[in-house]
Design a protein that fits this description.
664 residues, alpha/beta, OB fold (Dihydrolipoamide Acetyltransferase, E2P), Rossmann fold, 8-stranded mixed sheet, 7-stranded parallel sheet, 35% helix
Length: 664
C-alpha cells in the first residue's frame, strides 16, 4: 500500500515522511512516539527540573495588559501561584488569549517549566479555567517529527493508516496475544500509561521474536567452523609459570571455558565479566597466545587510544620471550607506521594486532584471523563488532566488560553469549566509599578535594556535557573548568579533557595528570575506561542522574587503584527522585550485579542495533522475562511454523537487515 493511499497524505507530504524514514504504511505505524505527555495527574514541583513539561493547578495572582514590543511581537504576562511557589507565565503573539485570563481565578496550566535567574517561568503555556482539567487531561503521544510534520497531523496520519493496514502477526501462530492492530492502537493512542506499556510490550514481543527467528535462519550452517586448535592447553604452562603471580581459580576456570569453546563445533561467543583488578586482560592475552600457537592471528580492539596503548605495553611486557609478534594500530598512528603495520598483518608477519576502531578499517586484511578480543564491550556499537568479526569466517569472539551493557545481559539469557565471570583479585573495591550528594553539599566536597590535594592525592570531576546547552540545566566541562580555575581552585593545576579534543592534546593532558603535575582533571566520560592513575582518590560525578549505573560504576573504578589508598566516589544530583537509584551504587560494588540492576531499570535494548523510529523511555522495557519468552517463541516457530514464518513481512525485513550483524 502506498503512502498516498492514506487519507490526508498527498504527493507533497510523501518527501517529508521520507525524511523521517517513513516509506510505507507499515513504516508509518511503526513510527512510535518518543514520549508521552502525561496529563493524568498534577506535577510535583519538588521533583521536577527546568526543561520538564508540567501540569499544574493554581491561582492566577495577576495579569498584565498586552504590550506591543514591536510591530511583529506582543506579549502579556501572568503571575501564577502553585504549590506555594510563584511562576511567571508569558504569552507571545496571542493577544486573543488575554480576555480568557482573569486574576484571582483558578486555572490548570500545562507547558515546559524553565528557570530564569533563579525564578520559575513558562512560555506560551496551555491553560483552562477550573481546578481540574478537561481539555488538559489524559495521555498525548509526542512523535520524533523534527518539526517536519505537526504533531496532530502525524497522529491523524497514523490513525488513518491503522484503519487500512492489515498488521500481519508472526507470534499469533504460536502464542495467544492481543491482536497486533490493537497493540498499535494502545501504543499510539493510550488512555493511560498502563495501556501504552501493554501495547509497546506486545510490539516489542513481535519485533524481538521476528529478529531472533531471522537470526536463527541465517545462523544455520554459518556458525559451524572449520578452524582447528590442535594443541593442548598445556602449551600455555611455561607462560603461566613465568607470571609474577598465580592465576586465581576463576581465571583458570575462564581459561578452560575459552579453550572448550575454541575446540567446539560452533564459533565462540563469550563474555568475560570482571571488575577492576580481577585479571580480565591476562586471561584474554593467554587465550590469544593459545590461538597464535595453533597457527591463527589475533585482533585485540579497545575503545580508546589510551587503553589500546596500555594493552600494547602490557602485551610487550607479559609476552616477552614467548615468540609472539605484536603490532599496534590507532587513529593517531603515523601514515608510514600504518602502512607498515597493515602490510605486516596481511603477510601474516604480525600475530597479535592491538588497536582502536582502526583495526576494522576496510584496508586491514588478515592472513588468517582466528580469534578476536573486544575490550570494554559497552563502548562499541553492534556494527563495529560485526565489522571486525566479518574479517574472517567463523572467527572466535571474546568480549570483556566490568559492567556488561543491558543488551549483552539479554544475550546471555538468550543463550547466544556465554558467560565467564572473574572474582576480584584484591580488596581495592573495598577501599572506595560511595555517597550521594545534593547542590548544597558541593562547597563541602570542594573543600574535601582541597585537603586531599594538599596531601599529594588527585581528583576527577566528571560532567555530562562538554559545553552548555540551551534548555538543559546541566553542568558542562568547559564552563565548570573556567569557574574552578578562576574561583574555588584558583592556583591549583587543573586539566580539561573531553572526547572532541585532538588526540595529541588529550594524551598530553592525561600524561600531565599521570605524572602528578595536574591535581584535578575536569572531564566527560572520556575517562570512563583505561585510566590508571594511582594517586587519584576522589571521583566527583556532577549531574550523576544523567548516567546509567554501569557508567557510574566504571567511573568509580578510576579511583582506589592503589592498594591501601582510601578513595571516594561522590554522585551529585539536583533531583530528589534520583537519589534512590543512585543509592543502589552505595550498597553494591559488584559490576555484574550493577549491570543486572541497570538492565532492570533501563530495559535490555535492541539485540541487533536495528531500531524502529521513536523510543519508549521507561515504558514497556525489554526485560529478562520478555527475552526468554521471545526466544522460546522463535524456537517454536522454527520447529513448527518455519515455512509460514518465512513469509512474514517483518521476518523478511530482518533477514535483509541483520545478515551481516553479529549477536556477540
Amino acid at each position: 500500500m502506498n503512502l498516498t493511499d492514506i487519507k490526508g497524505i498527498g504527493e507533497k507530504t510523501v518527501p517529508k515522511l521520507n525524511k523521517l524514514g517513513i516509506y510505507s504504511t507499515r513504516d508509518l505505524i511503526d513510527f512510535l512516539p518518543s514520549k508521552y505527555w502525561d496529563m493524568t495527574h498534577f506535577s510535583d514541583l519538588d521533583n521536577t527540573q527546568p526543561g520538564d513539561y508540567v501540569l499544574l493547578s493554581g491561582l492566577m495572582f495577576s495579569v498584565t495588559k498586552v504590550q506591543y514590543i514591536r510591530r511583529s511581537m506582543n506579549v502579556f504576562k501572568g503571575t501564577f501561584l502553585a504549590q506555594g511557589r510563584k511562576i511567571s507565565l508569558s504569552w507571545f503573539n496571542a493577544p486573543y488569549l488575554r480576555e480568557k485570563v482573569s486574576p484571582g481565578e483558578e486555572y490548570v496550566v500545562w507547558g515546559k517549566l524553565l528557570e530564569n535567574k533563579g525564578a520559575l517561568c513558562m512560555s506560551n503555556p496551555s491553560f483552562e479555567a477550573g481546578k481540574t482539567g478537561v481539555r488538559l487531561s489524559g495521555i498525548t503521544p509526542i512523535y520524533p517529527t523534527k518539526n517536519i510534520i505537526a504533531q496532530p497531523t502525524m497522529a491523524k496520519f497514523i490513525a488513518n493508516a491503522l484503519e487500512k493496514e492489515e498488521c500481519e502477526s508472526l507470534t499469533e501462530a504460536v502464542s495467544k496475544d492481543i491482536a497486533l492492530k490493537d497493540a498499535y492502537r494502545l501504543a499510539h493512542f493510550p488512555a493511560d500509561k498502563a495501556q501504552a506499556a501493554e501495547g509497546r510490550r506486545r510490539l516489542n514481543k513481535e519485533r524481538i521474536t521476528a529478529q531472533l527467528f531471522a537470526y536463527k535462519i541465517l545462523k544455520q550452517g554459518r556458525s559451524i567452523k572449520d578452524k582447528h586448535y590442535a594443541k593442548p592447553l598445556d602449551v600455555l604452562q611455561p607462560l603461566i609459570n613465568s607470571l609474577p603471580y598465580k592465576l586465581t581459580p576463576s581465571q583458570l576456570q575462564a581459561l578452560g571455558e575459552i579453550y572448550d569453546d575454541m575446540n567446539g563445533r560452533e564459533k565462540m561467543n563469550r563474555l568475560l565479566a570482571g571488575d577492576v583488578g580481577s585479571g580480565k586482560t591476562i586471561v584474554a592475552l593467554l587465550a590469544a597466545v593459545y590461538a597464535i600457537k595453533c597457527g591463527y592471528q589475533v585482533a585485540f580492539m579497545a575503545p580508546t587510544e589510551i587503553l589500546a596503548r596500555q594493552h600494547y605495553a602490557t602485551a610487550l611486557s607479559v609476552l616477552r620471550g614467548v615468540g609472539v609478534r605484536i603490532g599496534v594500530l590507532t587513529g593517531v598512528s603515523g601514515a608510514a607506521e600504518k602502512r607498515e603495520v597493515k602490510a605486516a598483518v596481511k603477510k601474516g608477519e604480525i600475530d597479535l594486532l592491538i588497536g582502536t576502531h582502526s583495526v576494522i578499517g576496510d584496508k586491514i586484511d588478515f592472513a588468517d584471523l582466528g580469534f578476536i578480543v573486544i575490550d570494554e564491550l559497552q563502548r562499541f556499537g553492534v556494527r563495529h563488532k560485526s565489522a571486525l568479526e566479518n574479517k574472517a569466517e567463523n572467527v572466535d569472539v571474546l568480549v570483556m566488560s566490568a559492567t556488561p551493557i543491558p543488551r549483552a545481559m539479554a544475550l546471555t539469557l538468550q543463550g547466544e553469549l556465554k558467560l565467564s565471570s572473574l572474582q576480584p583479585r584484591g580488596s581495592m573495591a573495598d577501599n572506595i566509599t560511595t555517597a550521594v550528594a545534593g547542590d548544597n553539599d558541593l562547597p563541602k566536597i570542594y573543600d574535601f578535594i582541597h585537603k586531599k590535594i594538599e596531601v599529594g592525592e588527585q581528583a576527577y570531576i566528571v560532567c555530562p556535557l562538554v559545553e552548555d546547552s540551551d534548555g538543559l540545566e546541566r553542568i558542562s566541562a568547559k564552563s565548570l573548568y573556567a569557574k574552578l580555575v578562576a574561583g574555588v581552585f584558583r592556583g591549583v593545576n587543573i586539566g580539561l579533557v573531553y572526547s572532541g579534543m585532538k588526540e595529541e592534546l588529550k594524551a598530553d593532558v592525561m600524561r600531565r595528570f599521570y605524572e602528578g603535575e595536574l591535581k584535578i582533571l575536569v572531564a566527560t566520560t572520556v575517562i570512563e575506561v583505561g585510566i590508571d592513575c594511582k594517586s587519584a582518590s576522589v571521583m566527583l560525578v556532577l549531574n550523576a542522574d544523567c548516567f546509567g549505573l554501569a557508567t557510574l560504576h566504571q567511573l568509580r573504578g578510576r579511583v582506589g587503584r592503589r592498594e591501601g589508598l582510601r578513595s571516594y566516589c561522590v554522585l551529585h544530583t539536583s533531583l530528589k527522585k534520583e537519589c534512590e537509584r543512585l543509592e543502589s551504587l552505595c550498597k553494591s560494588k559488584d559490576g555484574f550485579e550493577i549491570a543486572q540492576k541497570d538492565a532492570d531499570m533501563r530495559g535490555f535494548g535492541d539485540f541487533f542495533g536495528v531500531r524502529q523510529s521513536g523510543g519508549s523511555g521507561d515504558l514497556a522495557k525489554i526485560d529478562a522475562e520478555l527475552v526468554v519468552e521471545c526466544r522460546n517463541l522463535a524456537d517454536k516457530l522454527y520447529e513448527e511454523q518455519r515455512a509460514l514464518a518465512l513469509q512474514n513481512a517483518s521476518v523478511c525485513k530482518y533477514l535483509e537487515e541483520i545478515k551481516d550483524i553479529s549477536l556477540s
